[in-house]
Amino acid sequence: MKIKILLALLLAFSLTNCEKLAPLEPSQNTNKIKYLDRIEIVSYPNAGPGGTNWDPDSTGPDMYLDIKIGTKDPQTTEVIYQRGQDDLPVIFSFTAANLPLTNEVWSVSLYDNDRPESPDQLMHTISFSGANLSNPFISRNGPYNIAVYYKYK
Ligand SMILES: [Ca+2]
Ligand SMILES: [Ca+2]
Questions:
Q1: Which single residue of 4, 22, 92, 100 has CA 20 to 30 Å from 81?
Q2: Mean per-residue pLDDT for 1-5?
Q3: What is the pTM of this model?
Q4: Which domain range does residue 91 map to?
Q5: Which ligand is closest in space to the CA of residue 121?
């Protein structure tokens, strides 16, 4: 009798643990929020405006992103220097930035930092709504290919 009870308890314990180990689908994570994870510059044109090199010394552009969410002030990333065509994709990580994908218009502008010699050059701008974003959201426009990834937290 005692052995039967022990076996029943053991079975119940195993089943409980199995349920705990079952992976959760992201769609079931109803308590979790989508956060911007990273933006990848997958491709950009070899030549800058006017068909010249991005920078006079023929090195790649020095990239940073300006992110405007709704009507808030734009946020600027650190510059990732001299990214040539061999350095693609250029990855901007937002893991530490804690930017929830709010249901607003997001406008992301890619710049080439040319200071202090001359003003920065706007390379490309993409826009999307923070809600119902595919993962990744891929924006292809001419030679520009930019991918936006989010993560649940
Ligand atoms: Ca430049
Ligand atoms: Ca530059």
A1: 100
A2: 58
A3: 0.79
A4: 25-152
A5: 1
